[in-house]
Amino acid sequence: MNISYDWLKEYIDLNVPPEELAKYFDQIGLMVESTREVNGQTVYEIETYANRPDTLGHLGIARELATLFGLPLKMPGWQLSELEQSTFDLIDIQVLDSQLCPRYCGLVVRGVTVGPSPEWLKKRIEAIGLRPINNIVDIGNYVCFSLGQPLHTFDLNRLKEARIIVRRARKGEFIRTLEGQLVELTPDMLVIADDSKPVALAGIIGGEESGITEKTTDVFIESANFDPVSIRLTAKKLGLSTDASYRFERGVDINAAPLGARMAASLLGQFGGKVSRGLLDVYPNQRKPRSVPLRLKRISELLGIEIPEEFVTRTLTSLGLKLNEQKPGVWVAEIPSFRVDLEREADLIEEIARFFGYDRIPSEVTPTRSFELPGNQEQDCLWLLKETLLHYGFDEVINFSLADPEKEKIWQTGYQPIELRNPISSRTSILRTSLLPGLVENAVWNYNREANGVHIFETGKVYFWEADGQQGEELHLGLLTSGLKEQKSWAQPARETDYFSLKGAIEDLFFYLGYEAPAFEPEDHSFFESGQSVKILTKNETAGYLGLLKPEIRKAYELEKLAYACELNLADLFDRQPRAFVFAPVPRYPGMVRDLSFLVEAQVNFQAIDVQLKKLNVPYLERFEIYDRFEGGSLPAGQISYSVRFFFRHESRTLLAEEVERAMLNIISHLKSTLKIQLR
Amino acid sequence: MSSLPEKIEQYRQVLNDLAAKTKNIKELEEVKQAFLGRKNGHLTLLFEELKQLPPEEKRAAGIALNNFKMEVQKTLAELEEQCLRPRAEKTVSDLTLPGKRIYWGAPHPLTLFQRKIEKIFVSMGFSVEDGPEIETDYYNFEALNFPPYHPARDSWDTLYINDKLLLRTHTSPVQIRVMEKKKPPIRIIIPGKVYRRETADPTHLPMFHQVEGLVVDRGITFAHLKGTLEYFIKALFGEKVKLRFRPSFFPFTEPSAEVDIECLACHGQDSQCRVCGGTGWKEILGAGLVDPQVFKNVNIDPEKYSGWAFGLGIDRTAMLAYEIPEMRYFYENDLRFLRQFNRR
Predict the structure, then answer these.
(1) What is the pLDDT of residue B148?
(2) Out of A27, A368, A456, whose CB is closest to B125?
(3) Which of A231, A234, B46, B224 is the most exposed place for a label (fewest CB within 10 A)?
């Protein structure tokens, strides 16, 4: 909203120079976005709030300043030069829907000469950022930006049968607006009609056929009040937003309508206009002023400072409220009709705080009666997870949750995606069902910008429709590793990332978070190269997948380099309690180590050996490690050589060599019978 | 049976042979034991033998034996030094070459900044809460005192899924969810992603991060809101930062305020400043006392309890703190940008 310093002076004798006014506006919550000079007058662009339609006119702003500075508000009188005829003789008004049009005022002005506005009016119009059109249109805007009361002016002679009917539109009716747009109307829309058809979209825009032209001499001034919700729904539906609809949908002062009509009529008198006798005012259900109780005690209870009673009464009275004292320190406030926002005691207390000044309210630390036990394990787990991955050299990324349905199709994530009804673009029209597409895009972005390796992770939600039609959100972890992991240096060669670097990070993630080690089962997946991915299982439930991204996906994103990726469902994982940590005694007796090298058929994977060894439950076996593996060379085809190191220990004595030899024989015979190993 | 001087000569030979073969401390220890062992060490035995000699031979042999003892000690000392000294290939010829460093990944700047904020509030006894990003109209608007069809909704441009569901436009719905299940006192913050139907520009994106704070208890005042937020902002931006509270409007708070901090780029000195537009102030958060209607919507008696709430854009505040000119940098995930933030 543009506010002119000169215009304000019509209502208040400001004693603050224009350049100092901005800081006072800010102080009472009328935020000045910018200040500029227009035609030698200072104009402030003020941010107004949706609940304060009274600040959409200079009068309302002047009232705020009058309260702040303790100055009186001036109300100019509007003289009318009158015709012989009464308004009733000149126009017939019927309001058929007083729900949507609670008040309708009008006056007829005859003998007006349409022409350019005088300089003072042009200056006003330019100040608010509009272009002067002609005296009639400009007067309408002048009244609107003075009182916040939108007006509409009709050419009386273009209204059929000089009749105004305020009704809902009929099915199949059309109107051509003043802007030349042909609009189809529906019965939920309120129109102003003449005897035959709609001549204006009530409270939004006028019709072309009834509008003012160069030749207009007789004018009907409409100064009405319309239902905010109805105006908003119609304006939204038609995609129209005008200065009038902007005000009506916020709630125009029901009592501004008569003044609006008088003010416009009086101004038209300057251009030869004579005004019909008697204001036409259809206002069937008169509104009573709202009453709001106010307790002095409550003010200090909420603001944290005692505010003098005199300040309270002076401020609210200056804002137009009537205070009726019930008993000392307790009032019932009668709210003026222009303040549609003041409904509860808290609203009045805000007014007092605003004019008292937020900077004069003290600053105190919020007292505490009790502390909650530190909770929300998920936040802690998430941070620990991030720290672990950062330690592994993964950088953290954050991608948009909005995704491209075409691109996401390639992945076949298996989730039913959620579509947006009003997306910003078709490329951001669904919610992501996987974190990996974003990570692949990040890899491509960085490869195109000097990177020779990308190792990144993201934690965030994926979204989908559940089988039962409910919306689902699930916290995931996505990882991607591609290209050089270590750069070549004078001291060491370059190292490429690989499958096991990623798998190791995942294994350690479970370890550091205190969860049981997951199982990795080779299984094909739509993201990955056939035979090059594993399913990650915790407690026999699928927690995620890890593998080498398949070429079709890399091709779709133009990712030339190989990339390994992993996606884990963290929601399920974090639901589980990690094992409580307790210390284990440090060994006091020496352990013994034995190595075993053997050949096994290639189809037996390490996990099979691992499972058999764990199943055996060998006494005193502390742990075992695979320390060598190879195939080919001098080995028979289809055979793999493994070397495993076994660590034995007794917790309360030194082990005997025979005990260890017996255990090794047990291991060997078990592996021979179950996996057909051959010792080397 | 050879004489003592002959034996000394033999052991000198043994010593020299062993010294030539000794490569490490363990082997050296064996040599030491062989010569100096208390029971059977060569020298120990030789001194035993010396005691048995007739006095006329004793003197000359004694001198020879003592000399040999010193020789043994010297050889052992030399051997020890030799064993401890690093081999040539283990020494560095140019000590100024760059060291081997281990790369730590960089946390995302928004994670880093969110964590800073969380730490400040957690130290004041707040707990961190969380809620869904897909919300209903009720939680996102109605329960927060946005009437249906009210223009107040225009400032919260919404991405809708259907008539019932939308992407939350702020973290405030979590306030409602927490107050529905928990009785006061409540002291929480709620960080998270929020969505607006906005066309991208340097300070607007369709997705960004917010943190919401909520306190509900008996006797909570506007002064408490001011004091706590002042502490928070100073903890975040430093003790000297200037700030101001301005009246504002939010449907879910009354009275409402916006908090500005002085422009960290120009400190109000540049009328053409690109960061603050020359006003000298940057708005960083919205706040206020919880609106009584919001309390009624969650069955908390506004006569018994009062509370304050605030909402802050994490992205925009991080932009101010790190002097980042465009919000999109956060979501491009350019490693040359991200990796600056591993200097935590």
Answers:
(1) 83
(2) A368
(3) B46
Return the bridge partners of A41, or none.
Answer: A38
- The CB density around residue A541, as the number of other CB atoms within 10 Å, is 12
What CATH number should be reported for the domain whose range is A2-69?
A: 3.30.56.10
Q: Report yes or no: A342 and A290 within 8 Å, Cβ to Cβ.
A: yes
Structural fold of domain A291-360: Phenylalanyl-tRNA Synthetase; Chain B, domain 1 (3.30.56)
CA dihedral B16, B21, B23, B26 (to 10 degrees): -80
Smallest CA-to-CA distance from A600 within A675, A522, A665 is with A675
**Which residue of A232, A418, A431 is in closest CB contact with B149?**
A232
Task: Give the mean pLDDT of chain B.
Answer: 92
Q: Does domain A82-282 have CATH number 3.40.50.300?
A: no
Phi/psi at A311 (nearest 5 deg)?
Answer: -65, -40
Write out the DSSP string of A236-275.
Answer: HHHT---HHHHHHTT---TTSHHHHHHHHHHHHGGGT-EE
Distance from CA of A252 to the nearest CA of B (A): 13
Residues of chain A in contact with residue B132, where contact means CB-CB under 8 angstroms, are 473
Chain A 17-46, residues with CB within 8 Å of chain B CB atoms? 26-29, 31, 34
With an 8 Å Cβ cutoff, are A365 and B228 in contact? yes
Structure tokens at B60: 């000359």
The answer to whether the Cα torsion of A399, A401, A407, A411 is positive or negative is positive
pLDDT at A376: 60
Chain B's closest residue to A298, CA to CA, is B303
In angstroms, rounded to a whole number, what is the distance separating the alpha carbons of residues A252 and A151?
A: 11
Q: Any idea which of A430-434, B101-105, B257-261 has the lowest mean pLDDT? A: B101-105
**Which of B215, B222, B342 should one mutate to test binding to chain A, selecting the residue with the greatest count of A CBs within 10 A?**
B222
Measured between beta carbons, the chain A residues lying within 8 angstroms of B159 are 420, 422-424
The complex scores an ipTM of: 0.89
**Residues B252, B152 contacting (CB under 8 angstroms):** no
Q: What is the pLDDT of residues A500-523, one digit of tens each?
A: 999 999 999 999 998 999 999 999
* CB B230 within 8 Å of CB B287: no
Distance CA(A209)–CA(A195), nearest Å, equals: 13
Contact assignment for A301 to B111 by CB distance below 8 Å: no
Diameter over CA atoms, chain B: 127
Two tokens, residue A616: 């055996």
Asked whether the beta carbons of residue A368 and residue B118 sit closer than 8 angstroms, the reply is no
Tell me the fold of A592-679: Alpha-Beta Plaits (3.30.70)
Q: Per-residue pLDDT for B1 more than 60?
A: no
pLDDT by residue (tens digit) across A342-355?
999 999 999 999 99
Is A451 in Cβ contact with B333 (below 8 Å)?
Answer: no
